[in-house]
Structures are given as structure tokens and as C-alpha cells.
């Protein structure tokens, strides 16, 4: 049996994409990424971090065993987000999602464990991504193994970013 699968476009069970509203005034703008009263408790963040990604650069593909990532793509650039459902017991196994999010379409995306994900900055300027995962990186006190399965160096590649 081959472990090669052809992914098809479609929703992915457990992935939540929320398009965000930008509130603007004479001081600038504000985007509300999440609220406890609007997000399932198992997705509440336990930490947050912001990363800057240069134009043309990709992060991933990788996945988590237990962690749900809560990304916010808000700018000042656009990112192409790639998601693949690799969970054999999922109703949407074999589906993929590819969307451009960020400056042109602000969104928060919650990605459950077992969904492979990657993103590439497709804009002309460095872009910022906020991540608010529901697990601590390397556990309490950074003493546990990191919950991450990396696929960037797979040969042959299993997850292609166009």
C-alpha cells in the first residue's frame, strides 16, 4: 500500500477560518482576533507570539500531534495558506484548502492537530503573523519535547507549495 494521497479542494473538519473586521478611525485601525466568548474553550490560547516573514519565504509544512494553532493573518502583507487533512479518521481526509489571507483579507485560522499546514508570504513587504496556540511550546518551563512533525525536507516532497 502506498502512502501517497492526492488531495482535493474542500473543507477540512475542525479547521475554523474567521474573516476579521477592521475598525478604522483617525488613529489607525484595530482588529479583534479572538474572544473567550466566541471561541471553543479547547482552542483558548496559552501563549502568543508574532513572527515576521520576508516576501517569498515559506514556513512549513508541518503538523502537530496535540496542539491547535490559532494564526491571525492581518498584514501588512498577504500570505498563501496551505492546509492538508492527513487524519485517516477524519470525514474530510484527503481534502486541502489554499487561500490568500492577510492585508487584502484579514482572517484568524484555527488548525487542529493532524492537519498539515504551511504559509508563504506572497506580498512585496515583510508580513506579520500572530500565533496563539493552545499548548505551550516545549511544555511548561520548555522542558518537554516540541509537538511538531516537520515535512519541509521530505524527499520526495509530500506537500507541495505552489
Automatic annotation (TrEMBL):
Q: What does this protein do?
A: Catalyzes the epimerization of the C3' and C5'positions of dTDP-6-deoxy-D-xylo-4-hexulose, forming dTDP-6-deoxy-L-lyxo-4-hexulose.
**Upper lineage:** Bacteria, Pseudomonadati, Planctomycetota, Planctomycetia, Isosphaerales
Which residue ranges traverse the bilayer?
Answer: none
Q: What is its EC number?
A: 5.1.3.13
Q: Which Pfam families match?
A: dTDP_sugar_isom (PF00908)
Listed GO molecular functions? Answer: dTDP-4-dehydrorhamnose 3,5-epimerase activity
Listed under catalytic activity are:
dTDP-4-dehydro-6-deoxy-alpha-D-glucose = dTDP-4-dehydro-beta-L-rhamnose
- Provide the Gene Ontology terms for cellular component: cytosol
Kindly state a single biological-process term from the GO annotations of this entry.
Answer: dTDP-rhamnose biosynthetic process
Please give the organism: Paludisphaera borealis
Superkingdom field:
Bacteria
Protein name as it appears in the record: dTDP-4-dehydrorhamnose 3,5-epimerase
Give residue numbers for the site Participates in a stacking interaction with the thymidine ring of dTDP-4-oxo-6-deoxyglucose: 137
Q: What InterPro entries does the database record attribute to this sequence?
A: RmlC-like (IPR000888), RmlC-like_jellyroll (IPR014710), RmlC_Cupin_sf (IPR011051)
Amino acid at each position: 500500500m502506498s502512502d501517497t494521497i492526492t488531495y482535493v479542494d474542500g473543507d477540512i473538519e475542525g479547521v475554523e477560518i474567521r474573516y476579521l473586521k477592521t475598525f478604522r478611525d483617525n488613529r489607525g485601525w484595530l482588529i479583534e482576533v479572538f474572544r473567550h466568548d466566541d471561541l471553543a474553550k479547547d482552542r483558548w490560547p496559552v501563549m502568543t507570539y508574532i513572527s515576521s516573514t520576508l516576501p517569498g519565504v515559506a514556513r512549513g509544512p508541518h503538523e502537530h500531534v496535540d496542539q491547535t494553532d490559532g494564526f491571525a493573518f492581518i498584514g501588512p502583507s498577504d500570505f498563501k495558506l496551505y492546509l492538508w487533512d492527513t487524519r485517516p479518521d477524519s470525514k474530510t481526509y484527503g481534502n486541502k484548502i489554499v487561500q490568500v489571507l492577510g492585508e487584502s483579507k484579514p482572517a484568524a485560522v484555527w488548525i487542529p492537530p493532524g492537519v498539515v499546514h504551511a504559509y508563504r508570504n506572497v506580498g512585496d513587504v515583510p508580513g506579520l503573523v500572530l500565533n496563539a496556540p493552545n499548548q505551550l511550546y516545549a511544555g511548561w518551563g520548555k522542558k518537554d519535547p516540541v509537538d511538531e512533525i516537520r515535512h519541509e525536507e521530505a524527499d520526495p516532497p509530500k506537500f507541495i507549495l505552489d
